[in-house]
Amino acid sequence: MRYFLLVLMMICCNLYASDMFPLKPDENPRGAIALTLREEVGLLNARFDIKRIEINETRELAYFCGLLKDTDGQYIKDEDDKYYLFDRILLDSGTEGWVSTVYLDEEFSAPEQAKCHFAGNVDLKSQELRALVKQYGRIAACLPVEKGDPLRTQLLDAVRENYVGDLNRKTTLNNTPVPSFVVTQLCAAQKYAYFCGEPANADADWYSQDSKKLDVVLQKDANNTWWLPVPQFQGISRQSSLAWCNHSTDILPVKTVEEMAKKRQQRCVREGDTVSLRGILAEQKSGAQRYWVVKLEEPLTCVQDADMRTADWNGQVQLLLSDEIIERVKVQYGDDLLNQEIVVTGDVLLALSSDHHTPLVLENIVKLMPVMEGPGW
């Protein structure tokens, strides 16, 4: 009985014992963590009066608490004329370095008043820190979304909804199967998410020996719906994929993902981009040639290198379709499709020859149908 109680006490002690360890002044990654926080406020010449810094056994979870001093050893005040206590839980993201995931920072009127959230006499436990990261971490960081998390399904559905496929390989109009993905990386913050992966069973790329990945940023709107912050009307295709992920780590500062989203929104549509457009379908002729044009519901606002000499350069696009495909679409939908609102998906092409009758042309068309039958992609 005594032996049983002794074993039980040992188990309990180990269960609740601290598994975080102080970092000595010359021990890595103490300097790297302090440098990351100094870079955050642009005070590289300052130094920290570190009250507490500890790391877990696997050295990827850390707690930091400290005040900044100038080169003369004086404590530095912030813009509110207060002493700012950096009180953080950080994760090692690998290529992005140490990322602050939980901010417990406070301001104090005097340096001696500064108290860490976790007092020095309190044993730190990684389990407790991870619980705080799980609860608050997505405010400041893009954290991994694991299998089984409902959020993972929401994010992959948003990617799936905007995925068109490999337009260079498609031979059938209006036939895009629902894809599944092999996920290389998937992380989410409160308002932004990042996906890197490829369609399951994807064929080798025609133009590269590398295995290309889809590189996608998502943003959440006021209705908690995830959408694609990309140039106007653009979707996701194999043609816009990359040979590697921009960010190989699973943890990103939220500012990094936010900046990625802003850059993609501000970029003009380029030749080769896949877009989905709505408008009125019309048939026109040039001599013996018959061709279809879509008069756009909403003009394209910015297209790189487009010929803008005509007033309506961005208000209509010619569809590059063979007579055979035009007849096939007419058989499927009837002549009533003409002069009706349709949705069409394809690649943007700048007019190059006399066969192109509008400054902007759409090629590699994979969807063409009435709006009521195919909203979105």
Structural write-up:
The chain is α+β, with helices and mostly antiparallel strands and 377 residues long. It has 3 domains: 18-139, no CATH class; 144-266, no CATH class; 274-373, OB fold (Dihydrolipoamide Acetyltransferase, E2P). It has 6 helices and 19 strands. It has helices at residues 2-16, 30-41, 126-136, 150-162, 254-266, 323-333; strands spanning 20-22, 47-56, 61-69, 83-92, 98-103, 106-108, 141-144, 163-165, 181-188, 192-199, 214-220, 226-227, 236-237, 252-253, 274-286, 289-296, 316-319, 341-350, 360-370. The strands form 4 sheets. Strands 1, 2, 3, 4, 5 and 6 form a 6-stranded antiparallel β-sheet that branches. It has a 6-stranded antiparallel β-sheet with strand order 12-11-10-9-7-14, sandwiched between helices. Strands 15-16-17-19-18 form a 5-stranded mixed β-barrel. A hairpin with a 2-residue loop joins β15 and β16.
SSE blueprint:
Blueprint: H1 2-16, E1 20-22, H2 30-41, E2 47-56, E3 61-69, E4 83-92, E5 98-103, E6 106-108, H3 126-136, E7 141-144, H4 150-162, E8 163-165, E9 181-188, E10 192-199, E11 214-220, E12 226-227, E13 236-237, E14 252-253, H5 254-266, E15 274-286, E16 289-296, E17 316-319, H6 323-333, E18 341-350, E19 360-370
Parallel strand pairs: 8-13, 17-19
Antiparallel strand pairs: 1-2, 2-3, 3-4, 4-5, 4-6, 7-9, 7-14, 9-10, 10-11, 11-12, 15-16, 15-18, 16-17, 18-19
In short:
The protein is α+β, with helices and mostly antiparallel strands and 377 residues long. It is 20% helix and 33% strand. The strands form four sheets. Strands 1, 2, 3, 4, 5 and 6 form a six-stranded antiparallel β-sheet that branches. It has a six-stranded antiparallel β-sheet with strand order 12-11-10-9-7-14, with helices on both faces. A five-stranded mixed barrel has the order 15-16-17-19-18.
